[in-house]
Structure formats: structure tokens, C-alpha cells
Design goal:
279 residues; alpha/beta; eight-stranded mixed β-barrel; 11 helices; 9 strands; 19% strand; binds ligand C2E; binds magnesium ion
Length: 279
């Protein structure tokens, strides 16, 4: 059974219910040990402004398991979320991101890191303490840490959530709306909540400027977000045509394979050296 779970044949949603149940349970057991066994790492995807200057990085989780191989975040993050394992895993991510920020600061690389915060983490009352203590441990200014949240996290916006976001924002943390345009929330949170940045989902960036619907949607999103005085990031930018369109239409920050894939820490440092000396 286990032999089937190698990198190439691994399927989480198999049609056979039995097999699916087994693999799910195995996945959960493996995931439970992932932090302690040091199987997790962070990769960093560069974010550049439209003049080509490096202005930030998104931390993206990677899981390398001895049997499963490298597991895609789209496969294990939902499982971590459903089981609550996202809380210890997410804590590891925040701590590692702060450790990395401190290393960058020492090298004079003065850019923020964005970390993804899942809906379950956002509901967790301990998130605030984790974030503050991780920043403090390394003497980091809170504005160096950006928290990416999704619209769906905000659907059942309880009063407690709003005040917790406000507290973190008051001490200087920045919030980004990730995958903007794909959630079920109303837009009113953009004025109610302390949001600094909106990330246009990759699905709207595909085929720019050739897809007329995406062209209209992206132009509207950029003008709305700019009108609110917030920053606009486009994700999934993988061609020069997309980049030029986004630049001409006022998008502030570009993230995607066109500039770089998510990079290991060492590769990110090399990338950063090139892009800070070039500009
Ligand atoms: P996301 O936050 O929207 O991250 C962007 C995803 O798009 C990343 O996938 C990135 O590799 C991919 N991407 C970036 N540029 C391009 C491009 O030009 N073309 C294409 N095709 N893809 C591009 P990744 O790393 O597989 O992560 C997938 C999702 O998993 C993330 O989506 C995020 O929702 C989640 N995730 C990753 N790391 C974490 C984490 O530490 N915590 C939580 N809660 N979720 C995470
Ligand atoms: Mg993200
Ligand atoms: Mg996204
Ligand atoms: Mg996404």
C-alpha cells in the first residue's frame, strides 16, 4: 500500500473510498510529524515593483516527506486546515519567516515577507501572541511581516476577529487579501478592516491582455483598489505581455514565474543580490 504512495502515483482524491480513507489517515499521521522531523521548509517568491526593483517576498511552504516525496501545498494545506494541524504548522511558518527576516536584515536586505494565514489560524486567539513573540525574539519591526488572508476568512466576521486584526494592524503589521476576487465575501470589508494590499488572483491574470473579460476585470480591480488608497499586487504573472498590461494599468507589484519561481533561501539570496545591484 505504502509503495503506491510515491511521488508520481500519489493521489489524494482517488475514486476508491477505501483507498482514499487510508491515504487521508496516512497523510494526517505524516503531517502530524512533519514539524518535529524537520520536513518543512520555506521557499520565497520575489515580488518586484513595475520598475523591476525587489520589494518583497512571499513565503511558501514546502513539505518533503521520505515516502510521499515532495507534497504540493494545495494537497496538504487543506488537510492541515481541516484537522487543525495548520495551527502548529502555521506557527512554525511564522517563526521561520521571522528568523529569515532577521537574517536578511543582517545582510542589509531590507524587504518584508508575506506569510499565508489560513482561515483557521485567523480564528485562533493565540495568533496574535505567536506573531508578536516571533517578531520580538528577533527585534524586528512589525511592518516587515505581511499577513495574507483570504476573503473567505472574513465571511463570518465576528467582532473578535475585527478587533484582533485591528490590534495587529495598530502595532504595524500589514494585511493583504490573497486570491482577491475568488471568495464569497462582500467588498465592504475593504473599508471596515485594516487592509493594506490586495493580490489579484492568478485566474484573472491568465491570458492578459488577450482575454477581454480578464482585461476588464483586472482594470476594474486595479482602479478600485487604487481608489481606496491600497497597494495592488498581481500574482501568477508569467509573461511580458501580462507584465506590460499590468504596468500600463497601474498595478504596483508583480509576482510570478516571469520574474522568478519560489526559490530556496540560498537561491533567493542570489536573486536578491542581482536585483539590488541592478537597480
Ligand atoms: P497562494 O498564496 O496564492 O500562493 C501563490 C501560488 O501560486 C504558489 O503556489 C506559487 O508557487 C504559485 N505561482 C506563483 N507564480 C506563478 C506563476 O507565474 N504561474 C503559476 N502557474 N503559478 C504561480 P504554491 O507554493 O504551490 O502554494 C499554493 C497555495 O498553498 C498558496 O497559494 C497558499 O494558499 C497555500 N500555502 C502555501 N504556503 C502556505 C503556508 O505557509 N500557510 C498556509 N496557510 N497556506 C500556504
Ligand atoms: Mg499567498
Ligand atoms: Mg494567491
Ligand atoms: Mg492561490
Amino acid at each position: 500500500q505504502e509503495a503506491k504512495l510515491d511521488r508520481n502515483t500519489y493521489r489524494f482524491y482517488t475514486p476508491a473510498m477505501h483507498e482514499r480513507a487510508v491515504t487521508r489517515i496516512q497523510m494526517i499521521n505524516y503531517l502530524r510529524q512533519a514539524v518535529d522531523r524537520r520536513e518543512l521548509s520555506l521557499h520565497f517568491q520575489p515580488q518586484l515593483d513595475v520598475s523591476g526593483k525587489l520589494v518583497g517576498a512571499e513565503a511558501l511552504l514546502r513539505w518533503q516527506h521520505p515516502v510521499l516525496g515532495s507534497v504540493n501545498p494545495d494537497e496538504f494545506i487543506p488537510v492541515a486546515e481541516e484537522t487543525g494541524l495548520i495551527i502548529p504548522i502555521g506557527t512554525w511558518v511564522i517563526r521561520k519567516a521571522c528568523e529569515t527576516l532577521a537574517a536578511w536584515q543582517k545582510r542589509g536586505l531590507n524587504i518584508p515577507v508575506s506569510v499565508n494565514i489560513s482561515p483557521r489560524q485567523l480564528k485562533d486567539v493565540k495568533l496574535q501572541r505567536t506573531v508578536i513573540s516571533s517578531l520580538r525574539e528577533h527585534g524586528l519591526h512589525p511592518s516587515l511581516l505581511h499577513l495574507e488572508i483570504t476573503e473567505n476568512s472574513l465571511v463570518e466576521n465576528k467582532e473578535g476577529l475585527i478587533s484582533r486584526l485591528q490590534n495587529l494592524s495598530d502595532i504595524g503589521l500589514k494585511f493583504s487579501i490573497d486570491d482577491f476576487g475568488t471568495g464569497y465575501s462582500s467588498l465592504s470589508y475593504l473599508k471596515r478592516l485594516p487592509i493594506a494590499e490586495v493580490k489579484i488572483d492568478r485566474s484573472f491574470v491568465i491570458d492578459l491582455p488577450f482575454d477581454t473579460q480578464n482585461t476588464a476585470l483586472v482594470q476594474s480591480i486595479i482602479s478600485m483598489v487604487r481608489g481606496l488608497g491600497l497597494m495592488v499586487v498581481a500574482e501568477g504573472v508569467d509573461s511580458l505581455e501580462q507584465l506590460n498590461f499590468l504596468r500600463q494599468n497601474g498595478c504596483h507589484i508583480i509576482q510570478g514565474f516571469y520574474h522568478s519561481e519560489p526559490l530556496s533561501h540560498d537561491h533567493f539570496l542570489t536573486f536578491a543580490e542581482d536585483y539590488t545591484s541592478a537597480s
